[in-house]
Amino acid sequence: MLSVARHDDDAPHKGISGFGRLKGSGGLAAACRVLPRVLLFAFWQQFYAYFSGDPFNSYVMTGITCPMPLPPNCSEGSHLVAGECVPWDRFNPSWSLSAKCADKDYVLETTARVNGLNGWIAAFFGLFAVFIAGNAMDTFGRKPMLMAFLSSNVFVKALLFASCFMSESGFFAVLFLQNLIEVACSAGVEPALNSMIADLTRGNEKLRSDGFAALGVMMHAADVIAFIAGYPVLKLHLTSYAWFWGPLTLVSLLAYAVFSFSPCSKLRETLHRDVVGDNGNEAEDGFSCSSFFKVFFSEIASGFRLICLDPFLAQFLILWAFTGQALGGSWNLAQFFLLKMGYEQANASMARPAWHLALMLGAALSSRIVRCFGARGSFAGSLLTMAVGFFLCGLGGPFPEHAELLFWLGTVVIGGIGNGVLATSFSAIISVRVSEQDQGKLFSSVIVVNTIVGLAVGQLWPQLFFDAKAVGWRKGAPWIASAVVFILMFMWLCVLCVLPCCNAKAGKAESDDGESSDEPATSDSEMSE
Asked: Which InterPro entries match (predicted)?
């Protein structure tokens, strides 16, 4: 029987009635009752990140410069008027998306490559941040990682505001610098949230799976709302984003105050006081540099040892990394794909909320799907589903008359639902393979492996497969390549599931039919200050 946490009527979180008063004996309702503060923070950070996501891409495009095209061969983004190439008005769907460059193909290709290179460089430095975050959250707690993220938001938005008044060289310098800071400080957010869920649901594997599903639903719901909220910003077709980044700087300050001091939303530490590290010391409240560096290198070694001692886990994390690169590689090009089909930039951005609605549906269904087919079966089915969806989208290259339908059906609907189930089943698979005190190292190791694989193959999609001028099969190459990767990862998973050496450590906790422990979960609102 699924056990849920009791609630204290005098608990400071009483104001979070939307979570704390949810009814139901299990599933997502039980997870929301146990995890109100974790889910509230997850909703906010996801909303804030994605609200500024599409405007950020448009902001990058405004900084792209190029010479004015020469007649009579005016490039897309300009048209011939009285023997001269004249840029289209910024409210015309054919606008080049930059007031400093009238060549739309050049703007799209340059932005895709700049974003790809920016992400590659930031991921390299973020790799070290993940090491620090994973080991720090297992030693000193989960909360400091989230507070560091809130603090970085203030500084990053202030930098972006200042860049609007800089020269082109200063613009690109800030572009790369702010990305380094943001990636480094956000590296610990997802591992910290996953570790908090593992902390608060220890001893109850079914509730833990429901907690990961609730986290997925909450984050995808925030994505949808954020993208819709950003639609009016894109509709303005701004040539300067100073007014956008300035107010967001103030909002970042307010968010820090809310999650630091507000009685109903103040973050609490979830790392239990009875959890001890390898050195036998209890987790500490504060962050001490001297004590941190004392255990840092030994913890890095233990993180790798944690993975390498489990043959299934080691290969599964690599499998997951390649899956993520194939997924992100194509999806990050979706907006450029739609812009080339003639979509106005605000309308093209609607693919993102539609995608996240599909992700939210997949995450909502994942709790029941995992219970019926097991975490591994759900993961394998999701890989096949995504392969079908992305291949359909790739067919839009040789069949341009159906490209729009194939994109929305294949990538957004089929691929999105499959990915929603995939993410939840992934967390359910890996979280039960390590002890509670190693959850932070585990989820940080996921990002480490993803980063290493991304450094190796992540640039294939924006730099090699994508070509704004391509036609035919070449135009659908990014999606077809992703579909091939999904099929290969499915075959790899099938081999892993039948190898005896990869199943020896699964144990009772990972059994599809196993019962969860009767040990009650602890609500995050019941944790002490």
From this structure: MFS, MFS_dom, MFS_trans_sf
